[in-house]
Amino acid sequence: MKRAFRALVATTTALAVTAAPAAATTAAPDEADRAELRERLDGVVAAGAVGALAEVRDEHGVWRATSGTAERDKPRTVPVNGRFRVGSITKTFVATVTLQLVDEGRLRLDDTVQTWLPGAVPDGDRISVRQLLDHTSGLYDYQDTLPMPPESDFILDNRWRTWDPTELVERGVAHPPAFEPPGSDFSYSSTGYLLLGQIIEAVTGRTYGEQIERRIIRPLRLHGTSVPGTFPRIRGPHPHGYLPVLRDGEFDLVDFTEMNPSLFGAGGEMISTTRDLNRFVDALLGGRLLPDHLLDEMRTPGIEGGTYGLGLAWQDTSCGVRVYGNDGDALGYQSWSYSTPDRRRQVTIALTPDFSGETDAAVDAFLDEAFCG
């Protein structure tokens, strides 16, 4: 839910939503205190979050900490090993499985949608697997068809509904493509990743969730990571996520921790922890999941000058270091997970926004401190 959730944040920034006072940063026991990182993490909460949690791995060791509270208006601190919905970071897992199938010769990047999913989308014979992965298909993003709070109660009213991916794809393709022809431009589209999930199942006979579990979660021992399907709760310790609503002319936050994640599907349904995401990105960039030539494909932008390849994103820090990974928005949760190419520094941070302000600048400051400090 990347673009749709960003729009939700933008439209509710500076609303009169009262959040609980930020708690002091809590570091994991027996781990070095890092004053600068602590200050930046507190700054994320102050910018507009109920709570935040982070893990940094670098030459100093492993640093884990939290700030704020796990629930609004309650004193309980965010669990340092808390689980959260990772949103579009799911796409990097889906892309990794897709490329593993390419490596096994069971799928080609140039295969068309029509080859594996006949009739699924208009002009499917012109859209390739590669274009689904790097968001150059032009397919309209189904997320943009979903009315979002606080203007609409649609999401709240449908929080327990099971969404079929075909239904969501149809919502997207009912609209004209973002551009023509496929491959000529970039437009972020979770519709493409729903199709990739269906292609994985067509190729293997098993769901993309089962393939992620078998190929990534179990081998890497990501004990806090899951593909929940339709299960609405977050198992294990976790902070609560919230959505802004308009009631009687005033804005408030509604606890949206529990919901049916089939709304996100292969584009964003997964749950994980800061430790597991750092472990996953480390394994990916370290060549444990894909051979070098396919990692190079992942790091190749879909359009010239772009910052998104085949399910992998990158950004440049203030000190000129380029870091690779992805970020994600799931309703009530936001997360970022990046690593330097040599894997000497890795950072994952997640937060639960309170919609009182924009947190992106504060998160960027935290990432800069972690990678450049």
UniProtKB/TrEMBL annotation:
Residues 1-22 form the signal peptide. Residues 50-358 form the Beta-lactamase-related domain. Keywords: Carboxypeptidase, Hydrolase, Protease, Signal. One of its GO terms (molecular function) is carboxypeptidase activity. This is D-alanyl-D-alanine carboxypeptidase.
